[in-house]
Write a structure and sequence with these properties.
By secondary structure, this protein is of the alpha/beta class. Helices cover about 25% and strands about 25% of the residues. The strands form three sheets. Strands 3-2-1-4-9-6-10-8-7 form a nine-stranded mixed beta sheet. A two-stranded antiparallel sheet has the order 5-11. A two-stranded antiparallel ribbon has the order 12-13.
């Protein structure tokens, strides 16, 4: 299972904090970063693929298309660049999710984070479950940490879309695909570092209120930000 993270020049060095927290939590899945200028730090085992010269977020879908045109894995995890992993990565739950979706021919996407979602429980594990959200739900094409079926992702890889345009489309409503969500557990829990160029006040805390970086981890990340010239945290 591969994690694919998209980034752009302004965020490319935030990835060092992202990688630090993922390494701390033993996330040993292969990671491919789709960006423009290479980051100014050692990516280690992470792969970097340049999409050329950065122009605008409005060309998001056009920028990533060449990579996905030749991407043939059946499933992948789409990740976010401006996040830190605040909690243990739940490999066991990820395996249970994969066992569930591989038997669903209409599977499209599943959130790997927590949150509150309405929907029908399709697999109950007792203290946690997997739900299918309604065909009329918003954000069926959310770009938040999710497991995607590649063919479904490519189905909506239309030209001329920014990330926000991608998520706000209503085209996926009523398309018959199974869009799933987690209840009572998560695979990823994340802190959101930056929004519109401004550091979030509680960037080191889970946006779901279920965890946060240790003081040591927070300090290391702040040193990373400082090293790369991010000074408004």
């Amino acid at each position: 299972m591969r994690i694919i993270i998209t980034t752009f020049d302004g965020h490319r060095n935030l990835l060092e904090a992202n990688k630090y927290t993922m390494d701390r939590r033993g996330v040993n899945l292969p990671v491919t970063v789709l960006g423009f200028k290479p980051p100014d730090f050692d990516l280690g085992s992470w792969e970097f693929v340049s999409m050329g010269e950065y122009v605008s977020p409005k060309s998001f879908s056009d920028d990533i298309r060449p990579f996905f045109d030749s991407f043939e894995d059946e499933y992948f995890i789409l990740g976010n660049d401006d996040t830190v992993l605040t909690n243990k990565f739940n490999f066991e739950f990820l395996s249970e999710i994969l066992e569930t979706v591989k038997d669903m021919p209409d599977f499209g996407r599943i959130w790997l984070t927590g949150g509150v979602h309405s929907g029908e429980i399709i697999r109950d594990f007792g203290s946690y479950s997997i739900k299918e959200i309604p065909q009329t739900a918003n954000y069926r094409l959310s770009l938040q940490y999710s497991l995607w079926k590649t063919s479904y992702f490519k189905r909506y890889l239309w030209p001329g879309l920014s990330p926000w345009d991608w998520e706000l489309r209503e085209n996926a409503k009523g398309d018959g695909a199974a869009i799933l969500a987690l209840s009572g557990a998560f695979v990823f829990s994340i802190g959101h570092i930056m929004k519109k160029g401004i550091f979030q006040k509680n960037w080191y805390k889970s946006i779901y209120g279920d965890g946060e970086l240790s003081p040591e981890e927070k300090q290391v990340c702040e040193e990373i930000f400082k090293k790369h010239g991010y000074t408004n945290y």
